[in-house]
User: Which sequence fits this backbone?
């Protein structure tokens, strides 16, 4: 059963495009990692899926609920650990969780046992009564994961769950995520910069690059102006277009002959210029 499904999910900020036609299908119980450099759009994708940010276009379903038309239903079935700190440092771990248990509408009789159980599950029972500002980074991350899972959601979104942690704290967080997955069969969509983290925790990964998200080519009509200008002088534009004609028979602009003529002229100009500069500047 597909739990997270996106179809051409797109988010623009003004003329710049943060997430470009993202297509994902994540099955129940799967852990899926989105990798990519800073600014690739990972957090923006997660914010759209958690209904915190409206999509510019495209669709997404979480457990069959539409993020645009059924946001409340989506919120009931997800847990979310944001990239930035989401617990209150002045409260104890226990107080933070009790607050969230009430926000999640957990019946009041069940709140305390659920919180105590969850703290024990994440190995935080000894620290439950300490204020969070006395916690280590790894303990805070574990508390945030505990908080996001209090209502036992089937889907968990983790935005860079181990950022800034030392290797031992990282490993403890990893162990608890794996335990969560095993115990509750939670479907996980996470972002990370760490290959070994994705490898250790996830069944599948996708890579979001800075300019090309899921489609082969960044569509020219939604490029920011500066990128449009560069693309006219970039031999790669003509080479990819030409290769696409040869391989799948469609073109985004010119005929094959035009593509390769322009490619040859630009490449020759770049080689000549490079040779000239080499002689003038280096020799
Ligand atoms: N609220 C916002 N307003 C304008 N631009 C934004 C906003 N949020 C994110 N962006 C831009 O969207 C792009 C993707 O950002 P983000 O999703 O945070 O990337 P990542 O999480 O992969 O590092 C960046 O270029 C960022 O500057
Ligand atoms: Mg981010």
Assistant:
């Amino acid at each position: 059963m597909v739990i997270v499904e996106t179809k051409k999910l797109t988010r623009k900020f003004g003329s710049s495009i943060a997430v470009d036609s993202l297509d994902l299908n994540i099955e129940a119980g799967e852990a899926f990692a989105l990798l990519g450099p800073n600014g690739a759009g990972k957090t923006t994708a997660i914010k759209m899926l958690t209904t915190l940010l409206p999509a510019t276009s495209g669709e997404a379903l979480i457990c069959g609920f539409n993020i645009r038309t059924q946001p409340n239903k989506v919120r009931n079935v997800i847990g979310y650990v944001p990239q930035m700190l989401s617990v209150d440092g002045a409260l104890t771990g226990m107080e933070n969780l009790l607050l969230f248990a009430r926000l999640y509408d957990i019946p009041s009789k069940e709140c305390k046992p659920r919180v105590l159980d969850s703290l024990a599950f994440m190995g935080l029972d000894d620290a439950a009564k300490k204020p969070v500002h006395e916690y280590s980074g790894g303990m805070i991350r574990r508390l945030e994961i505990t908080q996001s899972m209090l209502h036992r959601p089937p889907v968990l979104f983790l935005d860079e769950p181990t950022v800034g942690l030392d290797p031992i704290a990282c490993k403890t967080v990893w162990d608890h995520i794996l335990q969560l997955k095993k115990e509750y069969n939670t479907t996980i969509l996470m972002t990370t910069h760490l290959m070994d983290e994705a490898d250790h925790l996830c069944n599948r990964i996708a890579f979001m690059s800075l300019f090309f998200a899921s489609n082969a080519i960044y569509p020219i009509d939604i490029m920011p102006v500066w990128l449009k200008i560069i693309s006219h002088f970039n031999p790669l534009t003509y080479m990819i277009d030409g290769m696409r004609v040869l391989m799948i028979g469609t073109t985004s602009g010119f005929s094959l002959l035009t593509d390769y003529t322009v490619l040859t002229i630009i490449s020759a100009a770049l080689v000549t210029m490079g040779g000239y500069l080499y002689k003038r500047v280096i020799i």
User: Anything to note?
Assistant: The chain has two domains: 2-207, 234-282. The chain is about 45% helix and 20% strand.
